[in-house]
Amino acid sequence: MSVQYFEGVGRRKEATARVRLMRGSGRFIVNEKAAEQYFTRLGDIEAILAPLEASGHDRSQFDITVIVRGGGVTGQTDAVKLGMARALVKMNNELIPVMRKGGFLTRDARVKERKKPGLKRARKAPTYTKR
């Protein structure tokens, strides 16, 4: 018997998160750890679960499993949040206006700018000296 789940992929900077939502008892696993162990910063769990609360669902209704790779803590948090919102929309299309209004379906396209030749970093030029 296969378990039915709804999957959403979220990305931010270098981070990619695959979020799976299935009916269950409220387990929240990130990279085979409890979410509270993986995201230890204050407010990260609340930010990730914001799309779930905006949709009117309770965390205890779902089992959530996440596989997140790459990036830093903030990038991973935002990637999981976007993946969560996309999974909820797959589950129920009528949630699209709610997710749009909360800004949960917008992918943050800002990424690190590439280094240019002749410069020290993306925009920092070597110090100009007249003599």
UniProtKB/TrEMBL annotation:
UniProt keywords, alphabetically: Ribonucleoprotein, Ribosomal protein
GO biological process, one term: translation
Gene3D superfamilies reported for this sequence: 3.30.230.10
A GO MF label: RNA binding
Region of interest: Disordered: 112-131
One GO term describing the cellular component: cytoplasm
Signal peptide from the UniProt entry: none
Pfam families: Ribosomal_S9
Domain of life: Bacteria
Family note: Belongs to the universal ribosomal protein uS9 family.
Protein name, as recorded: Small ribosomal subunit protein uS9
Species this chain originates from: Anaerolinea thermolimosa
